Automatic annotation (TrEMBL):
Any single biological process term in GO: DNA-templated transcription initiation
Organism: Anoxybacillus flavithermus
Database matches in SUPFAM superfamilies: Sigma3 and sigma4 domains of RNA polymerase sigma factors (SSF88659)
GO molecular function, one term: sigma factor activity
Domain RNA polymerase sigma factor 70 region 4 type: 100-153
NCBIfam families the record matches: PRK06930.1, sigma70-ECF
Domain of life: Bacteria
Name of the protein: Fis family transcriptional regulator
Transmembrane spans: none
Amino acid sequence: MNDLVQEYKNSLKLVRKMYNNAVEEDKKIIAGMISDLEFSIEWLTTGRHPGHKRGIERRAAYQREKLFDPLLMQKYFRSSEPVYEWDDHEKQDVITSWDRERIEDALSVLTKREREVYLMSRGYCLTYSEIANYLCISSSSVQTMIERAERKIKKRIKESLFCMCG
């Protein structure tokens, strides 16, 4: 990482020299390059978005954890669920039996409706509005069901004998 920061700093020195020797019409473009390099250097050295007081790792958007690998979830759903009218994907059977057991254990705590909504969102990557249209419910209901399902899954993973971290 230090090598990368040093390369950015060296580039910044070169661009500043270019700025001093540039004609007026090129200075605006070069000034933008300087600004971008300074922004990147600050981000890399502090680990924070420049201007923000909190570390990026503590920001709400980055605190959201993925309970499952999204690609594994898609493979699971496409290999085990019945075919729905909105699904145009072919059946797949490419996950291990161990992965299948871990996922089924975690999903066992969901109601039928929560499982269907979770499948549509996480397994088939449909948007909340698409799910709402298919199921004739509101987008906020979809969001609520997804959030509830994720809380249940997270709790189940913590309590389960199946370790979801490996």
